[in-house]
């Protein structure tokens, strides 16, 4: 009797048969060899291990991983010890992926990095009949601070206040066109508000007098596929006209080259 959450893989005279179950399954004694496979979602954790990041810092990073078997036959015939192979593969992918990121990226984009890590693990475990459903990164203590000469420019000049609540890549984009707008005299009475949708800090809002056309032109001049890949976010522009009308514009820098 096979329960609903299990399947039985039968080897008959050395040949694998299609998975059997659930319900009553007949196996031939002395001829069939069989193995049970649990299809329920299971989980394991990767203990925090030291990772040397791209900017020279050392951080303890672990992960909680949920997985399930979607092909019972492949899970039996592909690897001898499925659990040990999955753990080793997940740990290797974790250390390799985190070494390409900076300390700031790991701390601020933990959810997104967990999704990317799950896709990387699935590429290696899918031929085994196993699929990772969820990966949640767990951050430990910072063992070594990143090298100052390799860190990205995250310090905001005092002349541009209000950027403290934005992430690093969005800070640099905001500083690029806000610095040009601050050097010229405002020609219009409208005010443009720059908002980071990824930040919940109310201080992450910039208001500077300028025109919408000049602002979008400044942004368009520096758009590239590499920048879009690095930012990976959407921008919201709120325009308040002199008559009190509120207009919203969105700039999607989450995919493509924004052409």
TrEMBL record:
InterPro entries listed in its UniProt record: Band-7_stomatin-like, Band_7, Band_7/SPFH_dom_sf, Stomatin_HflK_fam
GO CC terms in record: cytoplasmic side of plasma membrane
Origin superkingdom: Eukaryota
Stored SUPFAM superfamilies: Band 7/SPFH domain (SSF117892)
Residue ranges occupied by any Band domain in the UniProt entry: 2-151
Family membership noted in the UniProt record: Belongs to the band 7/mec-2 family.
Annotated function: Plays a role in the regulation of glomerular permeability, acting probably as a linker between the plasma membrane and the cytoskeleton.
Protein name: Podocin
Organism: Nothobranchius furzeri (Turquoise killifish)
């Amino acid at each position: 009797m096979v329960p609903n959450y299990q399947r039985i893989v039968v080897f008959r005279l050395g040949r694998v048969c299609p998975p059997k179950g659930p319900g009553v399954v007949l196996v031939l004694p002395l001829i069939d060899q069989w193995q049970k496979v649990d299809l329920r979602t299971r989980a394991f954790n990767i203990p925090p291990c030291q990772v040397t990041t791209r900017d020279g810092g050392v951080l303890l990073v672990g992960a909680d991983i949920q997985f399930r078997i979607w092909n019972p036959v492949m899970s039996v015939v592909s690897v001898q010890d499925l659990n040990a192979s999955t753990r080793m593969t997940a740990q290797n992918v974790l250390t390799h992926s985190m070494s390409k990121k900076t300390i700031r990226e790991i701390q601020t984009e933990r959810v997104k990095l967990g999704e990317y890590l799950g896709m990387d693990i699935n590429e290696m475990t899918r031929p085994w009949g196993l699929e990772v459903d969820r990966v949640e990164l767990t951050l430990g203590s910072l063992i070594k601070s990143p090298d100052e000469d390799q860190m990205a420019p995250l310090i905001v000049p005092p002349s541009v206040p209000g950027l403290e609540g934005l992430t690093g890549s969005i800070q640099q984009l905001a500083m690029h066109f806000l610095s040009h707008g601050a050097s010229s005299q405002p020609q219009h009475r409208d005010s443009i508000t720059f908002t980071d949708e990824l930040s919940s800090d109310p201080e992450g809002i910039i208001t500077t007098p300028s025109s919408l056309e000049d602002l979008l032109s400044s942004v368009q001049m520096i758009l590239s596929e590499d920048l879009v890949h690095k930012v990976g976010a959407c921008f919201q522009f709120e325009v308040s006209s002199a008559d009190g009308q509120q207009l919203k514009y969105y700039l999607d820098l989450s995919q493509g080259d924004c052409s």
